[in-house]
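Worked example 3 (structure in, sequence out).
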């Protein structure tokens, strides 16, 4: 009897957690290796060049995440980032997204050095938004799990800057 009750509770917990996750407008989750765990339901650009093209053609800002798979700081940020429904919905609706585990040759994407994790915003005119930064002076584009509200605020700022420039 107790085993049956525990089984039912586990099933209910699994089902309820599935309903709490943000689902994209298409209504289905698309398994992708490009997400690398940062948001499996999002459509991710494959390369920086593709991200710039999509950003320009769809008139949406590009959010670029630099990270490493074996970096504990990247892993901690990824967990909070992928679990936050507001971030996932905003990215799905208003951004082109790209995550990179390697550095690009574009030096504009590392204005204050090459470190991970770092998040850079690029507008559709292909201008890196150096004015949208995190809270650290020595790593201006770094975010920690505790900085998730600042990241959301910076995402809103990137959207407003795009609208004001139209």
């Amino acid at each position: 009897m107790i085993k049956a009750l525990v089984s039912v509770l586990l099933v209910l917990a699994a089902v309820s957690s599935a309903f709490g996750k943000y689902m994209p407008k298409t209504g289905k989750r698309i398994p992708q290796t490009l997400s690398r765990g940062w948001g499996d339901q999002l459509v991710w650009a494959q390369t920086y060049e593709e991200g710039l093209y999509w950003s320009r053609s769809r008139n949406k800002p590009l959010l670029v995440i630099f990270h490493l798979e074996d970096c504990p700081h990247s892993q901690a940020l990824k967990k909070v980032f992928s679990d936050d429904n507001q971030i996932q919905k905003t990215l799905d609706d208003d951004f082109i997204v790209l995550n990179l585990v390697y550095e690009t040759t574009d030096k504009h994407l590392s204005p204050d050095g090459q470190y991970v994790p770092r998040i850079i915003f690029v507008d559709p005119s292909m201008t890196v938004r150096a004015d949208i930064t995190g809270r650290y002076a020595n790593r201006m584009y770094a975010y920690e799990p505790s900085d998730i509200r600042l990241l959301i605020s910076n995402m809103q700022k990137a959207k407003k800057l795009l609208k004001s420039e139209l």
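Notes: The chain has a mean pLDDT of 86. The chain has one domain: 28-159.
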